[in-house]
Amino acid sequence: MPQTNTTHIPLTSADSLSEETAFRIFRAALASNLPVALWRLPGTKEVQVLVSAQVQQNLPPMEGPQRGFAFCPFQATSSTPNTFLPADLYFSGKADASPEKGETELPSCFWAYFEKTDEKQDAELLWPSHPAGPVKSIARDAFEQTVATAVKAMQAGCLEKVVLSRTKTLPLFNGFDLLTAFAQLTRLYPTAFVSLVAIPGLGTWLGATPELLVQIDRHRVFRTVALAGTQPITDKLTPADAIWRQKEIEEQALVQRYVVSCFRHLRLREYVEMGPRTIIAGNLLHLRTDFSAAMDEVGFPKLGTQMLELLHPTSAVGGMPKAAALQMIGQLEVHDRRYYSGFMGPVQLGQETNLFVNLRCVELGQDTVTAYAGAGMTADSVPAKEWVETELKMQTVLRLFQASES
Ligand SMILES: C=C(O[C@H]1C=CC=C(C(=O)O)[C@@H]1O)C(=O)O
Fold first, then answer.
1. Domain count across the chain
2. What range does the domain containing 71 cover?
3. 8 in any annotated domain
4. Cystine design at 165: which of 327, 371, 374, 397 (Cβ 3.0–4.6 Å)?
5. Is 46 within a domain?
6. Does the complex come out with an ipTM higher than 0.95?
7. Mean pLDDT score across all residues of the chain
8. Substitution candidate for ligand 1 out of 74, 162, 211 with most atoms within 8 A of CB
9. Residue 103: which CATH number?
10. CA 300 to CA 294: how far, in whole Å?
């Protein structure tokens, strides 16, 4: 593994013991070909894991009572459906917790592998990959051309903003270890939602996203954010000193207005809006506005589910107006986004729902890794800068795969 220069958060022995239990469950699920999700919530230490006996294609209400893990694409298709993994086995990662069983029994082979993995496992893990293999990548010149096309359309007034993405596929280096990569991301990005999701027939995704889509906390407070605008962190720059150009301010304001339009659509006025302020996401800074509403007090007991339907895809990954932006993405991008810029996260686990936008992520093939990243374009975008921005976003996770680039 390449060396990283980031501060490591020391784990206590109780933490590392429960992390090892979560990893054992993950390995046993892969070995028995079961869908599995492993994650660490922002600002927490616990690594949580969930295994399902089978996948559902309909999302239940986000407010309960069904518990599980949602994993949804940018746009659902037959090869990238919406998926919900019921919590047939769930481990919260807390030092005093043990794995909890759900409604459906896991097959006995899972428990056989789980017992076996008690001893240190040296056998290589085989993870599921998408049956169609890696998606297409675009060369720098061609990407910059497409950005120029989008900029012209925006200057002509056809739309205000579009988020165009691209991908980069590298061979996996010898000795790559999936769980080590996950553990490294948890140490590198303490404020990100770090996840590793493996679903037979659909693929394996690893990431560290900064973008909350929908949260319903244990007090039934709904939260979402408007995140956009990007600049690299430099040695001298703290979030408080960050200066934003008009282009980024407008780009984020469009996302913020989009969230407000969703509240308006529901005729909900009693929400709290804070920001925008500058936040750190790995090697980057973004602008973020926070929104919240106490669901019962404002008379919207199903606000999480209703807002999810309206928000996704937000203009942080699509654009404004939404329909025109989605059409342009379909025309200009050479790849299928699959689960990149979709959303995912635990539903009603630990009495909370926490859904995040799948950004700063990679998709794993058997011997390849594909990074996905996009950037918000407006009439003022400069194509070369947008290329660099997507490169920086990809580095969030690809830095762990550097040995692959040599
Ligand atoms: C689309 C991505 O980031 C979004 C979130 C924050 C900032 C963004 C931007 O500045 O363009 C994007 O809207 C991505 O990471 O692939």
1. 1
2. 13-405
3. no
4. 374
5. yes
6. yes
7. 93
8. 211
9. 3.60.120.10
10. 8
